[in-house]
Amino acid sequence: MPSTRALVRRPSPRLAEGLVTFGERTPVDPVRALAQWEEYVGALREHGWETVEVEPADDCPDGVFVEDTVVMFRNVALITRPGAASRRPETAAVEETVARLGCSVNWVWEPGTLDGGDVLKIGDTVYVGRGGRTNGAGVQQLRAAFEPLGARVVTVPVSTVLHLKSAVTALPDGTVVGYEPLVEEPSLFPRFLPVPEEAGGHVVLLGGGRLLMAASAPKSAELFADLGYTPVVVDISEFEKLEGCVTCLSVRLRDLYA
C-alpha cells in the first residue's frame, strides 16, 4: 500500500528570529504562525495524509521548515547538511524519525552542503538547485546516494531565490510551474508553465489532482482549477515573511518502498 505520511515539525517560539536572505525582514507573529501551521497540518490530514511530528527544536528558529533537513528517494533518506550553519542542529531529530520509520539513512558530509528545498523530484528525475545553500559537493553526494537507485540527477542554477523550490515545483503530470521572473533557465525543464504570482509556483501534490497551495496566489489557483486540478488553499503568510512556502513545511513520504 502506498505510503501517505508526511513529516512535520511545529514552529519554534523563536520563529521570528528565522533567517531572511533575499526579502526584507518584517515582524512575524508566532501565535498566528502556530495557528497557520496547525491549519496546514490539518489540511494534510483532511486529505488522507498521516502526519508524523518530528521532535520540536525550540532553539532552532527555522526548524519548522523541515523539508530542508532530509531528501527522500524511494526508501532512502539522505540527511542533509544545511548551507546555513545555524540550521545544522535541526537534522538529528529528523534522522531519528526517518530511521524509526524504517528508512535506510545516508548523510551529506563536509564540505558538502545541501538543503532539501533545493531538490525537486519528478518521477525518477531529481532536479537539484546549485546556489546559495547547496554546493557542488552536496550535489555530488546526492548523486552518489540516489543514482544507484535509478535517479537521474539534473543540476539547476539558483541565484535569485533562496531554494530551487522557491522558484518552481511541478504539477501531477510533471509540468514544472513557476513565476517566470524568478526562474533562471526554464528551458531545463521539458514542460514549463508560467504562473501569475510568485507563490503560485509552490504546490504540494496531495493526490487525486489536489494541490496544496498558499492563499497568496489566488490567480494561480484559478489557473490550476481551469486545468482540472483542485486547489486546497492555506494561509501561510507568517512563514512567507521568512521566505517559506507550502513545500517547506513538510516532507512527504510517498511510495516509500517502491
Number of helices: 5
How many DSSP E strands?
15
N/C terminus separation? 10 Å
Order of helices and strands: EHEEEHEEEHEEEEEEHEHE
Any key phrases for this structure?
258 residues, alpha/beta, L-arginine/glycine Amidinotransferase, Chain A, 3-stranded mixed β-sheet, 5 helices, 15 strands, globular
Question: Can you offer a commentary on this structure?
Answer:
It is a single chain. The protein has five helices and 15 strands. With 258 residues, it is an alpha/beta fold. It has a single domain (4-254), classed as L-arginine/glycine Amidinotransferase, Chain A. It has a three-stranded mixed sheet, covered by helices on one side. A three-stranded mixed sheet has the order 3-4-5, sandwiched between helices. The longest helix has 17 residues, at 30-46. The termini are close together.
Secondary structure elements and pairings:
Elements: E1 4-8, H1 30-46, E2 50-53, E3 70-73, E4 76-79, H2 91-100, E5 104-107, E6 119-122, E7 125-130, H3 136-146, E8 152-157, E9 168-170, E10 176-178, E11 192-194, E12 204-207, E13 210-214, H4 218-226, E14 230-234, H5 237-240, E15 251-254
Parallel strand pairs: 1-2, 4-5, 7-8, 10-11, 13-14
Antiparallel strand pairs: 1-15, 3-4, 6-7, 9-10, 12-13
